[in-house]
TrEMBL record:
<dbReference type="GO" id="GO:0016740">
    <property type="term" value="F:transferase activity"/>
</dbReference>
<keyword id="KW-0808">Transferase</keyword>
<dbReference type="InterPro" id="IPR003787">
    <property type="entry name" value="Sulphur_relay_DsrE/F-like"/>
</dbReference>
<protein>
    <submittedName>
        <fullName>Sulfurtransferase complex subunit TusC</fullName>
        <ecNumber>2.8.1.-</ecNumber>
    </submittedName>
</protein>
<dbReference type="InterPro" id="IPR017462">
    <property type="entry name" value="Sulphur_relay_TusC/DsrF"/>
</dbReference>
<dbReference type="InterPro" id="IPR027396">
    <property type="entry name" value="DsrEFH-like"/>
</dbReference>
<comment type="similarity">
    <text>Belongs to the DsrF/TusC family.</text>
</comment>
<dbReference type="Pfam" id="PF02635">
    <property type="entry name" value="DsrE"/>
</dbReference>
């Protein structure tokens, strides 16, 4: 059963392709700052935000890695992705941060039911 105010933010866009990743993370930070339990799920190109090492974005674009690093300060401790997402973009699990948890795609329906609210970016 979902906690009455639990939030899952799903991020599907690469760190530097658009502002959607930044907007999703910012939304998660605001919700967590107000005491809402928040988890993040990175799918498809969004999983690139979980790389240990990232290049810089376009001029004037803030890097996403420092923001991802500070999620724990806001009690956002669960960062999820799927092995299928990684395989689709050709990224081995060894290139990801150590705090990433893996979810099987076939377990996704049950996983999503744990959350009272889900936002997609």
């Amino acid at each position: 059963m979902a906690e009455s105010n639990s939030l899952l933010v799903i991020i599907r866009h690469a760190p530097y392709g658009s502002n959607l990743l930044r907007e999703g993370v910012d939304t998660a930070l605001v919700a967590a700052a107000f005491g809402q339990p928040v988890d993040l799920l990175f799918l498809g190109q969004g999983a690139m935000a979980l790389l240990k090492e990232q290049g810089s974005g376009a001029p004037g674009q803030k890097a996403s890695l420092p923001t991802i690093d500070m999620l724990e300060m806001y009690d956002i401790e669960h960062l999820w992705t799927t092995e299928e997402s990684l395989a689709a973009i050709g990224v081995p699990t060894s290139m990801l941060r150590n705090d990433v948890q893996f979810l099987k795609a076939k377990a996704m329906p049950g996983f999503l039911q744990q959350y009272a609210q889900i936002l997609n970016f």
